[in-house]
């Protein structure tokens, strides 16, 4: 089904599979195949999003798609940063005077 490890773990927990058996099952997934599947899935979704002109929307749609399927955040953000030379860093929300704020910084790593 081309799911990431997070989604696999959650689905198996829902079916009341023991943590011991889940760990054994995850060890059976070869890393090379796992990364190939991730890359293929991300590239397929990027082709579907080719009509989207807004880069930020394209990145968000790709991230939402991959997170929904349970892929690890490091892998998702790594793939998203490949889309362009810009990388976005999100700071955790904080509370100030009964309002919630969050920050998103854009860093150009190519300079």
Descriptive account of the structure:
This protein has 5 helices and 2 strands; from the N terminus they run αααααββ. The chain has 111 residues and is α+β, with helices and mostly antiparallel strands. A two-stranded antiparallel ribbon has the order 1-2. Helix 3 crosses helix 4 (55-68) and helix 4 packs antiparallel against helix 5. The longest helix has 18 residues, at 31-48. It starts with a helix and ends with a strand. Mean pLDDT is 82; it is low at 85-92.
What's the SSE blueprint?
Elements: H1 5-14, H2 19-27, H3 31-48, H4 55-68, H5 73-83, E1 86-96, E2 99-108
Antiparallel strand pairs: 1-2
Helix pairs in contact: 3-4, 4-5
In what order do the strands lie side by side in the largest sheet? 1-2
Described by the principal axes of the CA atoms, the overall outline is: elongated
Helix and strand content put the structural class at alpha+beta
Radius of gyration: 17 Å
Give the number of DSSP strands: 2
Cα-to-Cα separation, first versus last residue: 40 Å
Q: SSE string, helix = H, strand = E?
A: HHHHHEE
Main β-sheet description = 2 strands, antiparallel
Poorly predicted regions are 85-92
Give short descriptive properties of this protein.
single chain, 5 helices, alpha+beta, 111 residues
At a glance:
By secondary structure, this protein is of the alpha+beta class. It contains five helices and two strands, in the order αααααββ.
């Amino acid at each position: 089904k081309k799911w990431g490890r997070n989604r696999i773990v959650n689905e198996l927990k829902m079916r009341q599979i023991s943590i011991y058996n889940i760990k054994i099952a995850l060890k059976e997934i070869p890393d090379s195949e796992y990364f190939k599947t991730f890359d293929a899935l991300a590239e397929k979704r990027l082709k579907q999003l080719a009509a989207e002109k807004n880069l930020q929307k394209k990145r968000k749609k790709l991230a939402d798609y991959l997170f929904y399927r349970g892929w690890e955040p490091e892998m998702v953000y790594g793939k998203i940063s490949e889309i362009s030379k810009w990388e976005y860093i999100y700071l955790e929300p904080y509370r100030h005077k009964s309002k919630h704020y969050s920050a998103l910084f854009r860093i150009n790593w190519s300079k």
